[in-house]
Design goal:
Blueprint (H helix, E strand, L loop, with lengths): L1 H11 L2 H10 L4 H20 L22 H7 L12 H23 L5 H40 L1
Helix pairs in contact: 1-5, 2-6, 3-6
Length: 158
Amino acid sequence: TEGRAIRRLLYDMHGYKALHSLMLSGKARPFRRRLEEVLAERLASWMRSPRNSKKTADVLPSGMCWGPRSNAAGVAWGNWCETEPYRLPRPMLRSSIRAWKLVLRRQLVLVLRPPYLFPYRMSMGAILILAKSTCIFLKAGLRATRKQLSIKNQGSSQ
């Protein structure tokens, strides 16, 4: 299944190296630009949507409302319940927790080895990654704000 494939991928890859190359490598620049564009679009649509003080995260574009499961899915997952729509069956939950513990333990081993690199990764490496991700979010925010201002200017000039 997809979950198994994702867990296998995360088990085999080195999480820190992947994050480091994604955030700081020149080869990943097109991906980071696209990430900025997607974040800016989402933020701009969130800024445009009407919000009142009672709603919080439900106004984000990704907040979807799901309905009852199909009969085929109901066999493995049980009947759909509006109060608890994402619950896993008990045996599936246990095996999933066990699998994710293996993945997390493996990632911890990869980050901690060799021991002399761990202080660098936690100090300079984390600072560089945090700075780059902050830049991405700031650029996305500026782009969304500019887009909102241009929409408002076009609306007021008409």
